[in-house]
UniProtKB/TrEMBL annotation:
Record membrane topology: Multi-pass membrane protein
Principal cellular location given in the protein's record: membrane
Location(s) in or outside the cell: Cell membrane
UniProt similarity note: Belongs to the UPF0719 family.
Keyword Ubl conjugation attributed: no
Organism: Asanoa siamensis
Any one Pfam family match given in the protein's UniProt record, by short name: DUF350
Positions of transmembrane segments: 12-30, 51-73, 79-101
Top-rank taxon, per record: Bacteria
Keywords for the protein's UniProt record, in alphabetical order: Cell membrane, Membrane, Transmembrane, Transmembrane helix
Protein name, per record: DUF350 domain-containing protein
Keyword Glycoprotein: no
Amino acid sequence: MWEDLFVGAWHSIVYGAVGIGLMAAGFMLVDMLTPGKLRELIWIQRNSNAALLLSANQLGIAVIVFTAILTSYDEFSKGLASTVLFGLLGIVLMGLAFLVLDMLTPGKLGDIICEDQPHPAARVSAASHFGVALIVAACIA
């Protein structure tokens, strides 16, 4: 019984670390897609557009990791590998969705996201990020 508890706790720690790592990678993706430093935009300038996009990205990655863990393989190493794989795939696809949306719309989406005033394009971009995450999560399940 104790062994099962400790193994489960260890798996939680490892999956948690992987999830945090993937969310950090998602942060870096949004930081690369937007001009300036995301840390400054959100925490110093209080930019709501950038915060909305990052929030959608982080929630999307969490949905992907959650689904990957929930539907995980019985073998821990395979489950962990699939979580990393699908998490990275989701991040890449979110970045691709941002670039496609940028090509389809007027102006530079990154610049629009960095504007001080709330902009509807930020909501569309955030929905695109989260939508891609839901698609990846559905593919996992």
